[in-house]
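Incident log, structure service

09:12 report received: a user says their structure output differs between two submissions of the same chain.
09:20 pulled the input from the user's history:
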Amino acid sequence: MGVRLPPMQALRAFEAAAREGSLTRAAEALNVTHGAISHQIKALEADLDVRLTERSGRGIRLTDEGERFASRVRAAFAELTAGVNEITARVNPRLLRVSVVPSFAARWLLPRIGGFLAAYPDVDLDVRSNMSNVDFQRDDADVAIRYGYGDWPNVAAEHLLDDGFFPVCSPRLLAGRHLKHPEDLARFTLLRANDEPWKPWFEAAGLDWPEPSRGPIFNDSSHMLQAAAEGQGIALARRSLLGNDVRNGVLLRLFDIVAPASRKFWLVYPPRMAGTAKLALFRRWLHDEVASDRDAAPQALPRKGRGRPSVAPSRRS
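09:34 re-ran on a clean worker, output below:
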């Protein structure tokens, strides 16, 4: 009898955990629960009768056997992905699989995707959102829109969009009042998103305030903007994620002060996609949309002067 291979979902869970060094991040990458990842790895270890991972601080690390096995699993997935890409390109050459982070997909790409479909009906888009950067050797993707510094290895990275931060809120939150100075933010709850601190905007506004340590925090910027639209506080918005909310009056931009983002959006693809017609069409459409957004950039509410308090008031969240 041949050797019984472990289930594919268990191998996927182990590979993701090995790559991320964390069960939580592996669960986010695969869009499953933390418990599901843990269960699959334990089942895999039971099937193989070997310990593959062990706890390390707040994450995990691989055992020696785990390191060797992870290397084999990665290579196997790379071969499988290459086979899938090859046969997909032959069976459906019109298909373009796009990987994008959920916030950018929800707030920027999906609301306007109908324009692409109308302009290029011969291209079939398959949009997949994921918190982790796609691995073109492992994942089923042809091209990605990534947020970062453009220094990823073994891929082409073309600059797509700069970004910047400024405060926004629902008109209902102000109830007819106007914020005249940046220090007026001290009277409101400040909504926060992971890895998007308020401190750089405070500095751009001349405020010697520390990073807020209280108030709601979100792991997805689009969720934070939704909370702001519901009047739950003031959000530090990324310009790229506002969509039409300012133009439609759903959100108000409060000041004309912008803190430039150090990271940018990039169009990223593997060497196999270079020169393909469907990528060229998608690239052209993306740049046209970016240029259209630049021409219609929202303006801030008028304000008077700028204060420079050295200490944040105690009521600030």
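09:41 both user submissions now match this output. Likely a transient worker issue. Closing.
09:42 reviewer note: The CA atoms of residues 75 and 138 lie 9 Å apart. The chain has two domains: 8-84, 94-317.
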